[in-house]
Design goal:
The chain is α/β, with parallel strands linked by helices. It has a single domain, classed as Alpha/Beta hydrolase fold, catalytic domain (Rossmann fold), CATH 3.40.50.1820. The protein is built from seven helices and eight strands. Strands 1-2-4-3-5-6-7-8 form an eight-stranded mixed sheet. α1 (46-56) links the parallel β3 and β4 (61-64). The chain starts with a strand and ends with a helix. It comes from BD1-7 clade bacterium.
């Protein structure tokens, strides 16, 4: 893994100092995955590190970054809630503009990061259809979600009232990887959702929102992370 820190003079569109990137995988890869973190943990969380390493072992370049609120948490040493969606979307645009990618780009994210990535791509495509230029969306070849947060845990999981309604008509090929028992929407709920024809799904056996299975299942987190990486590598091959 390498770390790339942008200079303090390179300010992001959010007004925060541009983030450093954590980079795994080859410099000359055919595919780069830009991986956004979830709401509660940043780019250096154990899950993010494990996922990035597994994907990189498939010959894919992986670039991680922190959203502005997470950078602020680390600088000031106290918790802040996630930024509102417009700020997160601006941050994604900034990362796409600055990240040292190689080859085609897959925009990906864990939980909230995956939802924001999908909204960014949907909105970018909508702007392009309105004849406005959007270089960022044109540089992205595909989309991956790791545990998409379709429903709030503990709430009724009604297909017509989910956070992924924009995925019914999606501008790019996509892959949603979901734990079978994900309390934000597991295998049963995912099967009932009307997703676009260009979105594939991959269910990880007995996995929760972080893909961790129960011990009694006979599965393991390591096996599910390996399945995740295999799925992303196969999806990436279709984009080359």
């Amino acid at each position: 893994m390498t770390t790339t820190e942008l200079t303090a003079t390179e300010m992001s569109a959010t007004g925060m100092p541009a983030t450093e990137f954590l980079i795994d995988g080859p410099d000359d890869a055919d595919i780069t995955v830009i991986l956004a973190h979830g709401a509660g943990a940043g780019m250096d969380h154990a899950f993010m590190a494990m996922a990035a390493d597994a994907i990189a072992q498939k010959g894919v370049r992986v670039i991680r970054f922190d959203f502005p609120y997470m950078r602020r948490r680390k600088v000031e040493g106290r918790k802040f809630p996630p930024n509102r969606a417009p700020v997160l979307l601006e941050a994604l645009a900034d990362v796409l503009d600055r990240a040292p990618v190689s080859g085609k780009v897959i925009l990906a994210g864990k939980s909230m990061g995956g939802r924001m990535a999908s909204l960014f791509l949907s909105e970018s495509a909508s702007r392009s259809n309105d004849n406005s230029s959007d270089a960022n969306s044109k540089s992205v070849a595909g989309y991956v979600a790791l545990g998409f947060p379709f429903f709030a845990p503990g709430k009724d999981k009604i297909a017509d009232n989910n956070r992924g309604s924009h995925l019914q008509d999606f501008p790019l090929p996509g892959l949603i990887i979901q734990g079978e028992r994900d309390n934000f929407g597991g295998a049963e709920e995912l099967a009932a959702l009307p997703l676009a024809d260009n979105i594939q799904t991959l269910i990880l056996p007995d996995g929760d929102h972080s893909f961790k299975p129960r011990k009694k299942s006979g599965e393991s987190l390591e096996n599910n992370i390996a399945r995740m990486a295999d799925g992303i590598a196969a999806f990436a091959d279709t984009l080359k």
